[in-house]
Amino acid sequence: MKRQLTHDDIRAAVYGGAVLGGGGGGFVERGLRTAELALQVGTPELWTADEFRAEDLTATVALVGAPAAPDPQVLPTHLLRALELLRRDLPGELVAIHTNENGAETTINGWFHSAMTGLPVIDLACNGRAHPSSVMGAMGLHLMDDYRSSQGYAGGKPYAYVEGAVSGRLEATSNVVRRASVEAGGWVGVARNPVGIGYAVKNGAPGAIGFAIELGHRFLADGPVGAAQHLGGEIVAKGRVREYRCEQREGLDVGVAVLDDADGTTLHFVNEYMALDLAGDRRASFPDLITTFDEAGQPLASADVAVGEQVSVLVAPAANLLLSTTMYMPEVYAPVESLLGVAFAPEARVLADA
Question: How far apart are CA 110 and CA 104, in angstroms?
């Protein structure tokens, strides 16, 4: 199915994405602005994957960086420049683009590109929820010894602006882009990892954008409780934040938030919430969805949490989400666990069942 994205889609996509961001995936106001601009300058289109041939080439469009960084800037022109830098070096024609993940800003990744270039956005994400590392969003390409990653990136305020194109081993090129985000003040827009659409369907999360839009409509109608019900989850904790720590490490926000409730609810995050402990026991672990809401019931990014703020915590099981195959590959968790100092990767039994 092919359809034009409309103003009715914007709030639902951004708010549904914010819930699925699980503390990461960008910020609501920026997502709304970028999506509105896309509809002002053109007509972005969302196509289901069955509109393409399996061998047609698509690329991931993404944001890379630390949401709490003090001085970031990624403009729509930077997003286009990143795509231009990627397309310049491709051996074949790019026929579509797709987002890396669902989040307040990342669900609408590609809308501005589509409006300006005519490339359709595929109703597909590398992962149907937000995740902290590029390898987690690479749909298993790190396992292909002969795959050569190509990435274009751009971002930063005028005095910190960086752009470039890099190709090589997936982890190496991802590290270059992550470092570029630090030099740019915290964020860069990225276009990366061209693959055949058949590969993306098999290893990514087809239908992820429609999933976010449906969830967004439910959230806008019924708030956090409605979102939890829609996802087969629940609100598991409420309280004021009595402790909050966040630092930028290797281009990511790494920290912890502790509530003043009877359970001493503790949230560990690397951009997204990685683990939730209640009364000292593990209640949920990534890729389970853990999302915070503020006192008004609005999705609250981990970077925006503050001491004294009243929050509620949603948990939805990973089984109810649209997830990439990478979410069940233990090797992609090791660097994030090392940053956090907390083990949370899925157990071997879950990996074997996936």
Answer: 13
| pTM of the complete model | 0.94
The three-state (H, E, C) secondary structure of 120-143, written as one string: CEEEEECCCCCCCCCHHHCCCHHH
Give the pairing of strands 310-316 and 299-300.
unpaired
Instruction: Write the DSSP string, 157-187.
Output: -GGG-EEEEEEESHHHHHHHHHHHHHHTTSE
Q: How many CA atoms lie within 13 A of 91 on its CB side?
A: 7
C-alpha distances in Å from residue 285, one per residue of 276, 319, 340 = 6, 12, 13
Q: In terms of DSSP H, where are the helices of 21-155?
A: 28-41, 76-88, 111-117
**Interval 6-57: pLDDT, tens:** 999 999 999 999 999 999 999 999 999 999 999 999 999 999 999 999 999 9
- For 139-175, the pLDDT digits (tens) are 999 999 899 999 999 999 999 999 999 999 999 999 9
Handedness of CA 225, 231, 234, 235 (dihedral sign): negative
The pLDDT, as a whole number, for residue 70 is: 82
Q: Whole-angstrom Cα distance, residue 226 to residue 234?
A: 9
Q: What is the CA radius of gyration of the chain?
A: 19
What per-residue string of b and e applies to 213-227 under the rule 16 or more CB within 10 Å gives b? bebbbbbeeebbbbb
